Amino acid sequence: MKLFIDSANINEIKRAFSTYLIDGVTTNPSLAAKENIDFDKLVKEILDIFKNTDNYVSLEVISLKEDEMILEGIKLSKLSKNVIVKLPCTEDGYRACKVLSSKKIRINMTLCFSASQALLAAKAGAFFISPFIGRLDDQGYDGMKLIEEIKKIYDNYKYKTQILVASIRSPRQVAEAALIGADVCTVPYAIFEKLFRHSLTDTGLKTFLDDWYNYKSRLGK
Questions:
Q1: 130: phi > 0 → left, psi -120 to 50 → alpha, else beta; which?
Q2: Which domains does the chain have, with CATH numbers?
Q3: pLDDT (tens digit per residue) in 22-48
Q4: Which residue from 111, 119, 138, 160 has the fewest beta carbons nearer than 10 Å?
Q5: DSSP readout, the chain?
Q6: Whole-prediction pTM
Q7: Which residue of the set 81, 86, 123, 216 is catalytic?
């Protein structure tokens, strides 16, 4: 399963990229606004990080109308071979996806909250579908159940659209998505850091080192 960083913080993206474990990045104007950074400048800096890789950089349009989405999507796609154009799961978004996909532009359909939306995205030729499981959980639904439903539908009909699990709230959700067979998880940097950690690893390492130094001390070294 691929791992993306969901961030507009350049330092976070660079640190994640330096681990050699990241396959791409997702970002959007809202994340850029939180960082108080110009979106065009942010995009340039992110693309510079990934320019010599095959990793994905998912960039979201801000238009809501089909024709405007198409024009904006074409513009974004020309920035770099790494770019995936992100469109919303709306009627206009699906129409724009169909047009852009026919032009060999890779599309990430975002803000997906139902299996029917995911089905339409696959029929429209989307490269990625992004179900937001955390937001569903917040509303009392089972976000991971949605991933299971989408996976089943895509397997049934051999759709090539990849499942990109978004709105991740815990390391466990990353593991659960992998068990279901999702293609990608995009995670905030704070969650990415937690993937490395387990209290028993820290305890075990401390025990090993303590035993080693005690052993060396007994030998007088």
A1: beta
A2: 2-218 (3.20.20.70)
A3: 999 999 878 888 888 888 888 999 999
A4: 160
A5: -EEEEE---HHHHHHHHTTT---EEE--HHHHHHTT--HHHHHHHHHHHHTTS--EEEEE----SHHHHHHHHHHHHTT-TTEEEEEESSHHHHHHHHHHHHTT--EEEEEE-SHHHHHHHHHTT-SEEEEBHHHHHHTTS-HHHHHHHHHHHHHHHT--PEEEEBS--SHHHHHHHHHHT-SEEEE-HHHHHHHT--HHHHHHHHHHHHHHHHHHHHTT-
A6: 0.94
A7: 86
What are the two backbone dihedrals, phi and then psi, of residue 163, each rounded to the nearest 5 degrees?
Answer: -90, 115
Strand partners, 129: 109, 163
Residue-wise pLDDT tens digits, 74-131: 999 999 999 999 999 999 999 999 999 999 999 999 999 999 999 999 999 999 999 9
d(CA 163, CA 168): 13
